[in-house]
Amino acid sequence: MEIGARLHHLQLLSSDVDKCAAFYETVYGMPVRAEGSIRICTARDRRLIIAPGPSNRLGFAAYGFSGDVVEESYRRMVEARIAVASASSLLFRSNAFMVTDPDGNKIVFGAAETNAASDDPQVHEQLPARLQHFAVRSSDPSKLIPFYRDVLGFIISDRVYDDAGQVRACFLRTDSEHHALAIFHAADARHDHLSFETADWWKLRDWADRISQFGVPIVWGIGRHGPGNDAFFMVRDPDGNLAEISTELEVCESTRNEGTWRHEERTLNLWGGAIMRS
Ligand SMILES: [Fe+2]
Q: Which residues contact 3 (CB under 8 A, 6 or more apart)?
């Protein structure tokens, strides 16, 4: 049974928080506010915190529950398996908690502030996009996958194997959407990408048209992922983070069997070439 949380916000680290925040404000219609040295970019369904630090690194990922009760029962389940730490995020209520995965990625769980997001209504109505998943690179996915599955209760939707039987990618879900987290095998362990899910095929086109107006080129896509079956494209923010717009992401029955895919370009993009992390 899925845990029922959804990716609520990410904290990205940046050596130039103003430049990075301005990108998301301008290109993705997410108004910025400052809290000391931190920048917070929020629209109705997408929220990013940009904090000082080395660029192209994840500060933390935050999954939100829709209420305190379910968040508390989940916390008790996790606490029985691993040490958890109290956490505070500017976009969660005070009772959030944090765990650290075997690669050092920090994952926060909490109950969302209902009034935390401001809006750019014009952008929202014309171009909806909800922060939906993020992805990390790991030199050893076989250590991360049991952590997310057996400790945190994420469910594996699909795994990608090379011909030697090693896992090269894994897609895990927290609710019915195919993945809320993706793990890619790569030489270096770090943040890979964030993804905004839009309403339909035509909105994907409209996002590409909008982003092109700011002179930001597509660096991958338009394509269709094998696992998840979503149509997508990706651009890079000023720090080099890949930012994805996707649509038509698979909705899974809770009884869905785990799928397996071959490690090849076609798996990551049924329509053409792929960014291969390893
Ligand atoms: Fe993605």
A: 74, 152, 153, 154, 174, 175
